[in-house]
Amino acid sequence: MSGQLPATPVALLVVDGLQPEQVAPDAPVPRWPADQPVPAWPPSAFEAIRARLLVWEAKYEKAKRPNTVKALRADWNEFKAWCGRAGAWPLPAMPETLLRYLGDQVVLGKKAATLTRYVNSIRTLHVAAGLPCPTAQPDWALDWQGVLNRLSDVDRVVPKQATPLTSEYVAQIVGGLGDSLLDLRDAALIALATDTLCRESELAQLRVEDFKRGTLGWSVRVRRTKTDRHGISQMGAERHVAEETKAAIDSWCAAAGITEGFLFLPVGRKRNLDPSVLSGSRPIRPKEVARIIRSRALRAGVPQGATMSGHSARVGSAVEMIENGASVQDVQFAGGWQSPRMVLQYAQTAMAGQGAMANLRAKQRSRRLVGDDTQP
Description:
mainly alpha, about 50% helix, disordered N terminus
């Protein structure tokens, strides 16, 4: 059961979908790509843009993950469609065109993170096409701040945090599971997600060979992460695995007959399956991690179980470490974050209880209690 996960190429299709009427008549003619034969006649703006995008698109598809390619394709197609309805040219987009587009998205209920992605996608296509980007205008910072102000007025600037899955809830979930293949797999997955703070995609790619025992217990090696696809930085590559979690993993592997290869395999919907029907061709898909956590939380009666996501275990462990006195840097390393920004976002409530004001009030309460005790 050590089959490799086949790579599924995804086409960006920017060039295929580009039409001459989508390029402004007065668009500047970008420099012709160096690795393309120069035509005998002077190329039009559309021809030069298309030639540049043709070269860039092939490189982008090879360099980026399929989901990233799909996201850019979807963002660009949506912007093009809006331009068609609004009578505007997507290439090169004028700053006022982009602002109108973002304004419409605010009305449609989009959030700051989504609008930021749209802006980045539009910027990416303009740079790739060799065209001036609307966000490069001197006043763009002020314009963007105006968009954020509109979002702030409707409380759509700060992203909602995933509902934390804490150790208490993990014990509640795992304690109610049985010994079927599905139960054993899900118990191992949820416990491991809590120990390692792995993302959905990282959990799905873990292998039996990634575990090792050291002088201080078990650990698992996360070969590639969202922020380190090629395993170069090694930031938080080794994650701690509790003895109880390793025991749950061993129980799952023994029942499923897994001795090598991907750790978490799909087993179907029936509660009791013969291990021989397990498919070793691929692991569970990342989106299945979220479904498993949410469904198990709901069945166990965990509060807010319906809002659990694949990030819930990651957030819950980060919060608990902060509450237990760990530094932001310690949590950052434990979860493989490249910067402390997300750690600070996740642990705001816990850190508020450890701040200077919280310490001051605690000392004041202690003094009052001591004073009360000394009264006759």
